[in-house]
Batch of 2 targets.
Target 1
Amino acid sequence: MRRLIDRRHFLKGAGAVVALGAAGCRMPAAGPVGSRPALQLPPLRVSIDRITRVTVCTRPFRAAGPRTDVERIGTRTVVHNYGHGGSGWSLSWGAAHVATASALGTGERQIGVIGCGAMGLTTAIVLQRAGARVTIYAKELPPDVRSSWATGLYTPDSRIAMEEHATPAFKQQWAEMARRSYETFQTFLGVAGTPVEYIDQYAVSDEPGPRRRGEAEGKPRFAELQREMTPDLVMTPVDHEPGSHPFGQRYVRRNSQLMFNLASYQRLLMQDFESAGGAIEIAEFRSPADFARVREKTLVNCTGYGARALLADNSLVPVRGQITRLVAQSDATYGLRYQDTSFVPRRDGLLLQVTGENDYYGYDDDTTVVDRAEAEHAVTTIASLFPAPATSA
Ligand SMILES: Cc1cc2nc3c(=O)[nH]c(=O)nc-3n(C[C@H](O)[C@H](O)[C@H](O)COP(=O)(O)OP(=O)(O)OC[C@H]3O[C@@H](n4cnc5c(N)ncnc54)[C@H](O)[C@@H]3O)c2cc1C
């Protein structure tokens, strides 16, 4: 029922998109207005026939935030590192340091990491750098893990916890994770294969004023932490006046953001882990009793949404997200957000996603079936910003 309501909502929006697209054709051509020079951006080649893949996955959200405690299960010490919602890649290095301190605090130097997604890979590498011998146990490896189907932006407070659970201690730990991750991402800039880069992102709006993360009436608010806890990592946005950019009379606000090219980034992390002597074993754990099967006495549990079934952890809520991928375009180096859809110019493909009006879009929805109508809606929404050039008679 929830998905049907969502779909009806955005299809209604799709009608508006067509109307806006038509209106866009009547808008005056871009030209310099005021003192700011006109913004030039290469048009995107975004159309339904250029869709190459649609993927769906569930963000592992916990109202109380990620699980980082240490638990004794049978004969093993288990350090938990899961439940990072829509921020797993963004917080990965910081979360890895928290888990590493707990794991090495047991005195063991041979550590098993369960899971090979964003959290497992980064935790394994940080453990190695701290002197541990590490084996990763996982039932899936990149590129077949959920982490591969993320957008790939630095979004450290995206669906990370509910505001009511964001205590001062939680905020402090979050800020340390966000900051350490941000610093680590700087070390990947300029590396061959461009695993990490900065992009300009343009929020395009039909109305003046900054876009705010919408609130869902009568529901708990998601914690918003970036401006409060790491204001120095948030860049000052720049406004482009209507008519001074390629999007006609719309309002445009630019910001810069870190983007992870997940295909090359994951490959690099796998190489780093293996070249430092890391071992990988394919294994599925069906219950906590299976932890006793591995050699290591200390384990770090990085199973993401898989922890819900493995540990019967019903505090993990699935937040469905669908990514529509189009043929890559080498001169597309900027991102967009327009109406309910976002666009990210990854090197391995143009990525589009319907993100809805607020963070509840896809909340408590574990369906991983592709929604073709949603994919086409994302494409037509972004395409409407680029009216087709007039053809000569
Ligand atoms: C559409 C979408 C967009 C997103 N965009 C972003 C973004 O831009 N930036 C960002 O920071 N985050 C983003 N996220 C969130 C991010 O993808 C997740 O937070 C992150 O992938 C979680 O990583 P993980 O390693 O915990 O889980 P996973 O990637 O799911 O990895 C879990 C690992 O554990 C293994 N495993 C699980 N259960 C078992 C078991 N029982 N036995 C053995 N192995 C097991 C799996 O095989 C896998 O190897 C997005 C998520 C979605 C859905």
Note: Residues 2-13+37-60+201-257+318-383 form one domain.
Target 2
Amino acid sequence: MSALHTEICDILGINHPILQGGMGPYKTEDLAIAVTNAGALGVISCIGMAATLLPEAAPIDAVRLFGTDPPPVILQKSIEAVAKGTKGTGGVFGVNIPVAAEFLLASEMFARSVVESRESDSDIERSLRVVVTSAGNPTPWAQLKEQGLIWAHVVPSVYHAKKAEKAGVDIIVASGHEGGAHVSWDPVHSMVLVPAVAKAVKTPVVAAGGFCDGNTLAAALSLGAMGIQMGTRFIATKESDFETIWKQAIIDREERQTLVGRGLFGPMRFVRNQTAERIVEQTLEDVPRFYLGEPLDSNEAILKLERDGFEDLIDAKSDTALMFGGEVVGRIDDLPSVQDLIEEIISDAVKTIQSLPNEVISE
Ligand SMILES: Cc1cc2nc3c(=O)[nH]c(=O)nc-3n(C[C@H](O)[C@H](O)[C@H](O)COP(=O)(O)O)c2cc1C
């Protein structure tokens, strides 16, 4: 099989220029193992683990998902499990730490847990090589590099990409508005964002938001990116940790069936259903006040909706469960293994890139 090799492969020590996006509320432990063993970058997700700090206020059933350990211990166990599960292939993996202002206490705990896990075990030190920060200000996190970690940061605009570059990140993940879960209030989509960021910074760029196959990987490389980060596509895989109902929703929906509404920190893109529609209605009432800087009286109401939605999800009862997903749901209709998916993406991207000159260039 022909391979694709970019600067991202060298920086991260991976075979294929594909990153798995961090995806709460699950730990994405099984997914991270499968992605890493397939030669791409698997990533553990922390965001849901923090819910165990305030289980009664959290919009998920934290105890059921994570037990009662404190968040840094949950992460440490997860890191140990992924290091063990990937030891055979010698692959590398990362941890996603959201650094939103509302989440900073938890972010610091998770960063410490990453550093301590690496210090405590040479296998973990070798395999846990990457931290992907997201949803906030990168500047205070440069210390991660001093710990020998490779540091990627997710951005939604050229402004934020320049800020991340100034902070010293190794990789910038430019994430377009079509992506699943947290998005920016300013809707810049991948087709505009990725080439604009690639032009504005010298740091290698990974494209996120809407990527799912060989054609879109080839497109990302044409736009100046060195690889792709996928979230929604990886949900619908055999190994992913997501509930069956969530995987099926991704497979069933068409491209018009996602909605953006207020989420935990800023807006989120949801898979369209009754619960998502109610959140959007609530958002439309609140957003003008949000822009005027007034407090949002109905935060609690939105959190309650999310809480109810998640309870529904965790019991896997019905299609009213609250689920996040990107517009790319419309391009996903199967449930492959991670290994098959990655192999197909790479071989199709190679075919696309090789066939284009013959098809479109005239002498
Ligand atoms: C269910 C779901 C949960 C997500 N949770 C997180 C998260 O915890 N942290 C994060 O940085 N990004 C999160 N994301 C964004 C992904 O990491 C990725 O950047 C995004 O899904 C890319 O767009 P795509 O969905 O079109 O592939 C999430 C996405 C989805 C679909």
Note: The pocket of flavin mononucleotide is lined by residues 21-24, 45, 47, 96, 98, 134-135, 154, 175, 178-182, 208-211, 229-233, 324-326, 328 (CB under 6 Å).
